[in-house]
Amino acid sequence: MTQNLYHNKTLQWLFYIIAFGFLGLVPLISDDEFLLNQLATYAVYGMLAVSISLCWGSGGILNMGQGIAFGLGAYCMAMTMQMQTQADGTIPPFMLNNGLDSLPLLWVPFQDTTTGIIMALVVPTAFYLIFGGIMFTARVSGPFFAIMTLATLSAFATIFVDLQAYTNGVNGISPPGSLNLGDMEIDPYSSGTYWFVFAMLLVCTFAAKLINQSRFGLIVRALKDDPERVRFLGYNVAVYETLVYTLSGLIAAIAGCCFAVLTQYVSPAQFNVGFSISIVIWAAIGGRNSLIWAMFGAFTVQGAQSYVGDQFLNTWILILGFSFILVVRFLPGGVAGFVETILDRFTKPEVEPDPVDLKISDAKEVAK
Amino acid sequence: MVAGPARHHITVCVNFGGHEMDISSIAFANSLILGLSIASIFFVAALGLTIIYGTAGVINMAHGEFIMLGAYTVYAMQTFLGVPYFLCIPAAFIVVGAIGFAVEKSLIRYLYERPLDTLLATWGVSLILIQGTRLIFGSEPKFVQIPSFLSSNVEVGGLSLGAFRIFIILMALALAASVWFIFYRSDFGIKIRAVTQNREMAASFGINSGQVYSFTFALGAGLAGVAGALFGALNIVLPTMGIEYVVEAFLTVITGGGALMGSAIASLAIGEWQSIFALVTNSTFAQFMIFVLIVVFLRFRPEGLISASGKRR
Amino acid sequence: MKFSRRNFLKNSAMVGALAAPSIWIPQSRGAWGATLTEGEPIKVGVLFSLTGSLAVPEEDSTLVMQYAIDEINAAGGIAGSQIEPVIIDAKSDFGVYTEKARELILRDKVISIFGCYTSASRKAILPTVMDRDNLLFYPTCYEGAECVQNIVCTGPLANQHSKDLIPFMVENYGKRVFFVGSNYVWPKESNKNAKIWLENAGGELLGEEYIPLGDSEFGPVLGKIREAQPDFIFSTVVGASDIAFHRQFKQAGFSAETMPIASLTTGEIETKAMGAEYGAGHYTSAPYFQALDNPTNQKFVEGFLSSPYGKNGVTHYNMAETYNSAYVFKAAMEKAIADHGFNEVTSMRLRDACAGIKLSADISPEGETWIDEDNFNTWLVPKIGHCQSDGSFKIVKEAAEHVAPDPFSIYPDAGTCRANGLVAPDGTVRTDVI
C-alpha cells in the first residue's frame, strides 16, 4: 500500500460508522439509568470536542471561549424548560424575589417551546457570526484571537452573574421538570434521550466531516497553513474563517441544548474559563486534526475523571496537566497523530524509478 | 474630616434603571488617586508578561501562577525562616525567577515556533503549579505579615491612600525604572533587543539567543514573583490567587502592544477607568465594561497602543 | 456511492426507532427508590468538595460528617445498623456535583445525601433529588425563598441571621450603616432582610455595594465608605474576598473600634487566615462559635480536634451545622423505623419523620435546636461574637429565644411554605418551588 491508511477516505468513513455503531448499541446492552445519562453527557462533551476540532484542527482558529455558544444554548434551553413548568401567566419564582412582577422581555420568546428551541440555536450562532465577522475582518487571528475569546467569555460570565433578576445570577436556573416536546416527556435517564443526544453527535460529526472533505474544507485547511497565500489566490479569508467559526459555534450550541436537557441545571459556571480550555485539552489529547479522535479525547478524559479521578483525588489534576504538556510538546497531533505515524510505518514509500545515468556519450544516444 | 468641600451635583443614568448620585469633587479626586493605585497593581502584574511577550512572543498562561508562587515564597520565608518582609521581596524574585528558568529550559524553548501551543502548554504548567502548591501548602488561605507602618493610611488634605498602596506605586515605578535600565542601558539589554528584532541575525553576530531567551523568561518570572510578594500582603495567599490577575494582565499587555511604555499607558487607562466607573456605578459593571472596551479597542488596533519593536505577529 | 446509502439506511432506521414514543416514556418511578434492608448498613452520601477552590469551607463538612458518623456508629448505630457513608469529592465543579449526586442516588442507592455549600451547587442537584424522591440534608446558611419537599436545612435562613445583629450594632455604635456584599443571591437576600431590621431599629442606610464574587479589589468601595462615614458596616462578603476586605479595611486607615464590620460570614477559619490584627474588634453573627461555653461544645471541640479529622485546627459554624444534621438524620431514622419498620423506610418517609425533630443541648454543640414541621428549616439561637485579638470570638449577645425560620418572610404574597408545598394566600398549593 502506497498511501498512508490513515488518509484513506473509505476506511475513515468505515471507522466512523463502526465507532458510532458501537455507541448506538449501548442502551441495548445496559439499562442502568445513571450510565445512560452519564454517557449521554459524555456525548455532549464529544460534540464540543468535535466543534473545537472543526475550527482549530481544520481552520487553525484556537477558540478558548467555546463556552459562550455552549452556555448561551444551554441557558436558552433551560429558560424554555423553566417556562414549560410555569402555569400560564406565572413567572419563575426567582424573579419574584428580585422585584420583578411580570415576565421580562428577554424571557417572552421562551414561553413557546418551538420558539425557545429556535432561539437556543440561533442566538449563539448569530453571536459567533457577528463576533467572528468583526474579528476576522480586522485580521485578528492566532493567539490574539484566542485571548479575545477569553476576554469575551469572562465578560459573559460577569454579566450573567450580575443580571440576577433575569438569570438568577450565580445560583443558575434549575427547571424543576424535564423537557416536554408535545406529548412526550424527555426523561434524562431514558434510552430514548440517549439515542437522541447520540443522534445529534452523529449528525454533527458526520456533517463536520463532510464539510472537511468538501471544497470549503479544503480552502479552510489552506488558510490554516498560510492565510496570506490564500488571500493572494483571491479568496476572502475573513468569510471562510467566520463561517467555520460560526459552524463550530452551532455545534456547541446544540451541545448546550442537550446538556440542559440532560442535567436540568445551567449556571454562569458554563462560562468558566477552565471549562472552555478543558474542551481544547480534550481535542488536543485526542487529536485536533481529527474529528472522531477529538471526540474520543473528550470521552477518555472525562471518563477518566469520573472513574479514575476519585482514586487519585488530589493528584488527578497533576496527571491531567502533565498529560497535556506531554501531548503538546511531543504529540502535537494528539493520539490521532500518533496513530497516523504508526500507520505510516506500514506505508511503503513510492518506488522511485532508477536514476538515469547521464554520461555525455549516453546522452547523445538518448537524445536521438 | 474635611470642612465642606464644594459639592458638584452630577446626575448619572446607568443602564439598568435610573441612578442618581451626588459625587463630590473630593470623592472624585480620591477615585483618581485610587485609580493610580489600581493601575500600579495591573502594571506590576503585567510587567513580567510584557517582557516575555515583547521579547519572545510567548503568551505565558502560567503567569498568574508565577505571581502566586511569589506570594507563597514570601509566606514560606516568613513563617519557616523568619525573614523580614522587605527581604522576602528580592527572595521571591530569585526563587520564582529560578522556577521560570527551569520551565523555559524544559518546555518553552521547544515551542517558540508554535505560539498557540505555547499557550496551551503553559496552561498545563499552571494546572500543575496550582495543584502542586495545594498539595504542599494546603488549600486554606495563608497570612503574610507586613511591617505595621505600612498598615496605616496617609492623608493629605482630603485625599487619602493606604500606605501599602503607596508602597506598591513606588515599587511599580522602581521596577519600571530598573527594567528600562536593563533594556536600554545594559549589555544584556542590547542583546535582548537584538534578539527581539531578529533572532537569526543576532545569532549570527555571536549572541547566544537561546540563553538570552532563557534569562529573559527568568526575568519575567522573577518580576511576577515580586508582584506576588506585594499582592499576597495586600489581599490573601491562596493557590488560586493568580487566576484573578491573568486575564487582566494579558489584556493590559495586549492593549499596550508588548512594549514597556505601552503596558504602562494601558494599565493607567484601565486602572483609572475601573476606579471612576466603580465610583459612578458598581464594580461588577465596571469590570464588564473594561472587557467590552478592550475587545472593541483591539478590533480597531490589534497591534496595541505601541507596537513592540520589529517582530511581526 | 455505497457508503452514503448505507449511512442513509442506518439513519432512517434510527429515525424510525426514535419515532416510537414508548422509549421516551420514563420507567415508572413510583416503584423505584432507595430502601433499607435489615442487617445491611445504612448508606448515606456525603457530597462536598474536597479539592478545588471551594475545598476550604467544604472539606471540613466531610470531615465533621465522618466524625459524627463514627460517633454514632460507636454508640451502636441506628436501630442496630451501622451507617455507611459514601464519601464523594465534588471537585468544586457543578458538573461533577450533578453527576455524583445522580450516581449516589441511582447507583449507590443512598437513603439520603448530606451535601452542598454554595446555593448554586444545591440548585444543581435539587432537580435530581426531587425527581427521584430522595432527601438532601443541607447544612449551610442560605437565602430561603424555596419550598422543596426533599430538603432539610440545618443552617440559618436570611431572616434568622441578622435579626439581632442589626439592632445590637445600632444600639452600640449608631444608626448609620453601609452594606457591603459579594455580588450574588445570598448577600442580596440577606441585605433585604437586614433592611427590614434596620428600619425597625430606626437606622439609616447610607449605601449598598456589591463586588464581583472572588474579587479582592476593595479600593473603590472603601472610598465610598470614607465619603459616607457610617457608624458601622454590615458585610455579607464571602470567602477569600472577606479576608481581603478586612485587610484592606485596616490598611486604608479605618479602625474596628470606631467603625466595626458586622458580618454574617467571618468565622474562625477566616480570622485565622486574615491575621489576628485584621480581624480583631469586628463582629459576627452565627449560631455557633468555637468559644461557646457549654459542656457539649467542649466535648465536641476537644473530641474533634484531637481526632484524625480535626487537622484544620478550628471548629466553625458550618461544621457545627453539619454535625447537627447527622444527628437529625439519626433521630429521624429511629422515628421512621419505629413507625414503618426497617425495610419500609424510604427517603420521603424519612423526610416526613424529620418534622419537629429536636436536638437537645446534650447533643448539639450550639444548644438546643429543632426542625420546623412546616418548612423543614431549623429553629436556632443566633449569637453575636466579638472577635478577640487571638482570632477567637467572645459571645456578647445571645438571642433570648429561638428564632423561627421563615423562607418567605419578606415575600408574604408568595405564601407560606408548608410540609406539602407552598400554600399561596388564595389557597393554591405549589410543590418543588425552587
Give a short overview.
The complex is a heterotrimer of chains A (368), B (313) and C (434). Chain B is mainly alpha-helical and 313 residues long. Chain B contains eleven helices and four strands; from the N terminus they run ββααααββααααααα.
How would you portray this structure in words?
The complex is a heterotrimer of chains A (368), B (313) and C (434). Chain A has 368 residues and is mainly α. In chain A, 70% of the residues lie in helices and 2% in strands. Chain A has a two-stranded antiparallel ribbon with strand order 1-2. In chain A, a hairpin with a 2-residue loop joins strand 1 (179-181) and strand 2. In chain A, helix 2 (33-58) runs parallel beside helix 8 (191-213). Chain A is globular and about 100 Å long. The model of chain A has no long low-confidence stretch (mean pLDDT 88). With 313 residues, chain B is mainly alpha-helical. Chain B has a single domain, classed as ABC transporter involved in vitamin B12 uptake, BtuC (Orthogonal Bundle), CATH 1.10.3470. Chain B is 69% helix and 6% strand. In chain B, the strands form two sheets. Chain B has a two-stranded antiparallel sheet. In chain B, strands 3-4 form a two-stranded antiparallel sheet. The termini of chain B are far apart. By secondary structure, chain C is of the alpha/beta class. In chain C, 39% of the residues lie in helices and 18% in strands. Chain C has helices at 2-19, 55-74, 94-107, 119-131, 158-161, 165-173, 185-200, 219-228, 240-251, 268-274, 276-279, 295-306, 317-340, 347-353, and strands at residues 42-48, 83-89, 112-115, 136-138, 151-153, 176-182, 204-211, 232-236, 261-263, 283-286, 358-359, 369-371, 378-379, 383-387, 393-398, 416-418, 421-423, 429-430. In chain C, the strands form four sheets. A seven-stranded mixed sheet of chain C has the order 7-6-8-9-10-14-15, sandwiched between helices. A five-stranded parallel sheet of chain C has the order 2-1-3-4-5, sandwiched between helices. In chain C, helix 2 (55-74) packs across helix 13. The longest helix of chain C is centred in the last third of the chain and has 24 residues, at 317-340. Chain C is globular. The model of chain C is unreliable at 6-10 and 12-31 (pLDDT under 50).
